[in-house]
Amino acid sequence: MNEVMKAIRARRSTRAFTDEQLTREEMDTLLEAAVWAPSGMGKQLWHFVGIRNAEKNLELARAVAEADHRGPEYNFYGAPASIIVCYKADEMHAYLDGSAAIENILLAATSLGLGSCWINQLRNVCYELPVRKLLTAYGVPEDYMVIGSVALGHIAKETPAKARREGTVTVIE
Ligand SMILES: Cc1cc2nc3c(=O)[nH]c(=O)nc-3n(C[C@H](O)[C@H](O)[C@H](O)COP(=O)(O)O)c2cc1C
User: Fold this and answer.
1) Is the shortest distance between the CB of 12 and ligand 1 below 6 Å?
2) 100: Cβ below 6 Å to ligand 1?
């Protein structure tokens, strides 16, 4: 099978990670995948923050848990690393460009043998003051919103593939 198709078919949402940290090279590759995503009108008004520090990642998860009224067990599935995908607020293509970048990160992670999971909650609470303070400290520009984040690390437990819905494709010839 074609290498890209292999990664597309192998990608799963990982929800259990080991403590092993990503190498700096792995993180750099994932960020490179992000910046090479397509963007509406080529604007690229995004910003990516790679967190390759388990303590700082957990600190962010705790702030999200508090703001989103989640339990103490909320911890980005124990992932030691994350990438926060941000975009200049009020830009027409923000969610589209940001989501394209997220998918690039997920596929690149799979191709490196890493686990990944799209995390939605940071987006919901990125304007809550304690969360925003942390985001600012981690390098998110003030006028940028969060599109999503990706939990990253080594897979502790494989996720079985979800069956794909039938009847969602039409080909016209
Ligand atoms: C927009 C979006 C938001 C998501 N948010 C979360 C999330 O917050 N937590 C989570 O565990 N999975 C999240 N996911 C992952 C989906 O649950 C997952 O992709 C889906 O169940 C299919 O499983 P698969 O990724 O293993 O193929 C999200 C996926 C998308 C596209």
Assistant:
1) yes
2) no
To 5 degrees, how large is the angle CA 166–CA 167–CA 173? Answer: 130
- Counting from 1 in the atom list of ligand 1, the atom nearest the Cα of 99 is 1
CA distances in angstroms from 154 to 20, 50, 147, listed in the order given: 6, 16, 23
Structural domains in the chain?
3-153 (3.40.109.10)
| pLDDT tens digits in sequence order for the chain, 173 residues long | 899 999 999 999 999 999 999 999 999 999 999 999 999 999 999 999 999 999 999 999 999 999 999 999 999 999 999 999 999 999 999 999 999 999 999 999 999 999 999 999 999 999 999 999 999 999 999 999 999 999 999 999 999 999 999 999 999 99
- Identity of the residue numbered 126: C
Residue 20 neighbours by CB under 8 Å, 6+ apart? 80, 153, 154
For the entire predicted model, the pTM comes to: 0.98
